[in-house]
Predict the structure.
Amino acid sequence: MNITLALKHLFSDIQANENFEVQDNGPEPVLRPGAEEKGRVRYEIKPPEEGEKPAEGVHYRYGIDYKLLTEGEDYDIVERGPYIAVWNLDKPKPTEAELQAAWVAYQEAEANKPPELTELEQLQKENLLLKSQNNALSERADFIEDIIAEMAMRVYQ
């Protein structure tokens, strides 16, 4: 599903990267229960000043080091797929079901849309129309010429 096109089908006045952002992080690790403590590592940010008590988020932070963990045992790699990362509209953010329905409706609308003609095809179509108009004018001129000739024959008889 193309979330951007589905959203544009739902909300015609919506602008990508202004009203919303779609993101796809690719395959991501998802920890299994109990694995967080096994892979938890303390990263130093900056040393505390003399007499200052170290504070988390200022002097250090905790993170997960996946090199200490085993894939399939401690964590799994999961493909989340595209999702709406930022929503800047007053309208409620559509659910996955609404997006799927909009995507199906968009595909149906695109399938039923008449095909756009190439420049060559447009010119050929216009040329055919002009030829038809020219033939009609020529036939009318011939008809008027025949009527004038017939009237002249009757007048001069």
